[in-house]
Amino acid sequence: MSLLKFTIKRTIHGIVVAWAALTIIFALRFISPVDIASALIPPDVPPTARESLIEDLGLDQPWYVQYLRYIGGVVQGDLGYSYVSRISVNQLAINRLPATLELAVAATLVSVVLSIPLGVISATNRHQVPDYLASFFALLGISTPNFWLGIMLVLLVSVMLGWFPTSGREFGFYEAMRLLILDGNRYGIIQWLYHITLPAITLGTYYVALLTRLTRSEMLDQLSEEYVRVLRAKGLPETLVTFKHVLRNSLIPVVTVLGLQFGSFINGAVVVEVVFRWPGMGEFLIRAIRTVDWPVIQGTLIIIAITWVTINFGVDILYTIIDPRVTLEGESE
Known about the structure:
Elements: H1 3-31, H2 36-40, H3 47-57, H4 63-75, H5 89-124, H6 129-143, H7 146-160, H8 173-183, H9 187-204, H10 208-223, H11 226-233, H12 238-276, H13 281-290, H14 294-322
């Protein structure tokens, strides 16, 4: 199978998955126990005004009419208007999405910085004290709920020690870099790092365990390969063998899983953003749920779902390019 055919096949698969996700998101509104009209309209409003508002929102139309209009809007890139603010969901999401992406990227960096060294230490010190300590630390990370870790960091590091702010942010990454490049002012980037550190640690440590165990497993597999014995027989230093050859060959599956986990970072950011009042999609979604603002809820979930599908598609294509040992059909040639 050629790369073009593989790409087309994956594209069709991604479209089907995206359509299924959109349908499930649409169905959530009809299985929800909350009546949208009752949540939006005060009980003392006259029946005529109530019926008029329901008609304006299109809630009086049959479900299949609403579904077709909903799918048509998504295909055209129109996510509708907020019931509460009457502002375009597209505009609201554009203002919120960068903050979530910033947090996801920062959490990914935290995971990489912690997990790969831990995985290398575990593999090169198998069944020794460093291996047990690294495994314990990784297990502790995945066993700790994000919201609890975030609250503890706020209480200990922010409130008691005063090292970092408790919530919010002063600058986005774009504004901070623009200030640095155009004016040479480092205040913006320093403040951005100052505010994103605790949320990134809170979100990133949860995925350290998976990447650590994967790095360790791949390193052990590579260390048992014939080429490692050949390199050692040639007299190459152990550090060079470990980091230049073994670790490099072990990172291909790690990169693949890391790409897939990036979508999980976006999903997991919901709770972390609420704890730290980070102005991203997660806090945006929780606020919409509280006010039963369904266009905003649907729009946020749609963006998350499409982002997830896109990341998976990109990882599939990237994996076939960076690892020539894997055929496009997933079988040995």
